[in-house]
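Progress against Task 2.4 (sequence-to-structure conversion) is shown through the following example record, which the project officer requested during the mid-term review.
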Amino acid sequence: MRYHAIVSGTERLVVVTARGSSYRIAIHPGPVESGDAPPRVLDVDAVHLRPGSLSLLADGRSARCDIEADADGRFRVLLGEELHAFELLDDRKHRMHKAGGKFSLEGPQRVDAPMPGKVVRVLVQQGDAVEEGQGLVVVEAMKMENELKSPKAGVVSELLAQEGQPVEAGAKLAVVT
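Structure tokens generated for the chain above:
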């Protein structure tokens, strides 16, 4: 999965790859992959302690990690005793960010699982009216809970997600019209 992290105004490409029960995280020095400077690569094992809290093992070092996120992809992460603030965007949100703002999406919009995981909570029912950015489904992936939000204001016209259901990357979970 590809993400764009913006830390203190500097953008970096972050590529996360599942490797069995752990993850390989490649943090590029800039916004794109470049042959000029190799990425910093971390092999990470994470244990979910409770919602928003992980125990991490990376490069032989262990640390507790507490995470707060908002609807716009801004994160505050307390790693050990250090607080880190950054924005994390998937490719779609990154394109919208680069284009300079929010857009009104037209037509039916699918909400898909971003990576393999398990549905842990369904926050809406089929037929519910929702606002843009409202949580629809919570998927646990990479031992972290990810709240998938409505891409637009509308009505949940399809709801395929069920609590406890395993999902593959790209699986359709809901449709908002």
